[in-house]
Amino acid sequence: MAEAKIALSTLLTLLTVVLLLLDVSTSTALTEEVNPCTNLPPFTETDRDLIAFPLNLEFLEAEFFLFGAYGYGLDVQAPYLAAGGPPPVGGQKAQLDPLTNDLVAQMGLQEVGHVRESLGPDAFPRPLLNIGEATWATILNSAFRRPLDPPFNPYVNSINYMLASYTIPYVGLTGYVGTNPQLLGSGAKRLVAGLLGVEAGQDAIIRTWLYERRDQIVEPYGFTVAEATDAISKLRNLDHNGLVALAGAPVPYVIDDEGLVVPIEVGAERQTTGNILSADVNSLSYARTPEQILPIVYSSGDPRVPGGFYPLGARGRIAERYHKYGSD
């Protein structure tokens, strides 16, 4: 009887702790009062705009990972989060080995939480997303500057899927690094720090998975996994700089993306060619602005020209400074 009382007491204590943690994790950002030291609310109006922009990317990641692991996306997993936005185009269950499927499933479920936490007063419905085979084929054709035959399809095996995954969380990661210094409210800083931590973890998992297979040939194309990551990273650098480079503006070409194997002078402390994480000369994460992210995810090199994953453009006040969602 005494043991039963102790067990019941312990259970009640654990339940109390869990409830307290749930309350802290889900409500503090919304209920926190003005910071007496700064006289600022937890989220300023600018903060809300800055956090709303990467919601576009969180939607993309959630849909791609959920479809890859389960064969369905937010409309089944958490339909209320789509907020009436159109269903994504082209998502499908990937043919993954059990371990890779487990990793992708975990990342997909993590992204559900990211979308939920990012849906604040200034959030918007899910934008139209295209994650179909043709979109990925176009990206890889651009990366290798030639049509791949057969067209690249991320859903046919684990290697292809993880190479496609290589293109996504890192862009969000660099966006959060770029956003962080501009945030004013303590709630906004806490939220972005939490989002950034998990995005960085996802990117590290994907890069580690691929690094273990860096010398493996991607069939039937003949290039290695490492060569594919290098091509994708160079394309993202080009798209990042494309508008100014093509216009001939006097703006230096900026490198903020690196593949899995680099020249030794680019590796950490100039002592390794392995590049398990993409970082600058001091091994600090690169940063990107919305103006630099949009050309990448649009696959256009221009923040004013939607396409790629976002046929109608991205949503939110920041994205729509360059192109109004759904307009011609």
The radius of gyration over CA amounts to: 21 Å
Total number of domains = 1
Inertia-based shape: globular
> Which strand-content bin applies to the residues?
under 5%
Give the biggest beta sheet.
2 strands, antiparallel
Chain-averaged pLDDT: 86
Count of separate DSSP helical elements: 11
Task: Kindly summarize this structure in a few lines.
This protein is an all-alpha fold and 328 residues long. The N and C termini lie far apart (73 Å). Mean pLDDT is 86; it is low at 1-31 and 243-253.
Describe the structure.
- The structure is a single chain.
- The chain is mainly α and 328 residues long.
- The protein has one domain (42-321).
- Helix content is 51%, strand content 1%.
- It contains eleven helices and two strands.
- The protein has helices at residues 2-31, 45-52, 55-70, 74-77, 98-118, 133-144, 158-165, 169-179, 186-211, 225-247, 290-297, and strands spanning 217-218, 223-224.
- The chain has a two-stranded antiparallel ribbon.
- A hairpin with a 4-residue loop joins strand 1 (217-218) and strand 2 (223-224).
- Helix 3 runs antiparallel to helix 5, helix 6 packs across helix 10 (225-247) and helix 10 crosses helix 11.
- Residues 1-31 and 243-253 have low confidence and may be disordered.
- InterPro entries: Pigment-catalase-like (IPR052965).
- Keywords: Signal.
- Residues 1-29 form the signal peptide.
- This is Desiccation-related protein PCC13-62.
